[in-house]
Amino acid sequence: MIVVKLGGSLIHRARGLVREITEYSKASGKEILIVPGGSIFADMVRKANPSQEAAHWMAVLAMEQYAYYLRDGSEAKLTDNLEIKAKGTYILLPYALLKKKDELPHSWDVTSDTIAAWVAKQLGARFIKATDVDGIYLGGILKKEILAAELAGMETCVDAELPHFLMRNNMECEVINGDCPGRLIKALEGNPVGTLIKG
Questions:
Q1: Are 113 and 128 in contact (CB under 8 A)?
Q2: Burial 173-188 (b: 16+ CB within 10 A, else e)
């Protein structure tokens, strides 16, 4: 199983990426679970400026809206749980799952990045974050590999909680640029071009 967090920043080409993932999954026989970002739907929650508690669940529901957008026009299947029995590409509807297992802090420090990492932990899966940048830059230099501890407290392309979550759970996250043609498939094949964050 591979968990792919498909960032909201890729909304302009995300449905094409879902089709690529689906074709790769069919050809390889691999199970792939896409965890959607919040995208423009989460931006609306930020603009509404509700309380932190309300914002958490509204943002999770924003992920569900993006999931339906990603599913539109593809053969991927929607799922609201992690009990995936058949091979193929699935897109997670996270609200019911997170209501049942409410283990993450309710804060803007926890976005779909950490939620996707939590999902990967439940499944014992590889974790790829596809976004619109090449990876983690430090001092203007792209890092091929970096310890999560080095990112704690820094503002990067991952949410504030993710480095801590990776450290606590001894996990890795592969950050790749989904905007560059072919990079996501290369990552799925085990040849990622980007940054490996080691927990």
A1: no
A2: bbbbbbbeeebbeebb
The CATH number assigned to the domain holding 14 equals 3.40.1160.10
Total domains, the chain:
1
Rounded CA gap, 128 and 140, in Å? 22
Token couple for 17: 């990426």
Residues 6+ apart with CB under 8 A from 29: 87
Distances (CA, A) of 111 to 8, 42, 86: 11, 10, 28
Q: What angle do CA 189, 178, 79 make, to 5 degrees?
A: 75
Q: Is-contact 24 196, C-beta < 8 A?
A: no
pLDDT for 86: 87
Question: 53 in helix, strand or coil?
Answer: helix
Render pLDDT for 107-128 as a digit per residue (tens, 0 to 9). Answer: 999 999 999 999 999 999 999 9
Strand, coil or helix: what is 35? strand
88, two tokens: 């193929």
Which pTM value belongs to this model?
0.97
Residue for token pair 């009990």: 83
For residues 41 and 161, give the distance between their C-alpha atoms in angstroms, rounded to a whole number.
Answer: 21
Domain that holds residue 84: 2-198
Q: Is 170 strand, coil or helix?
A: coil
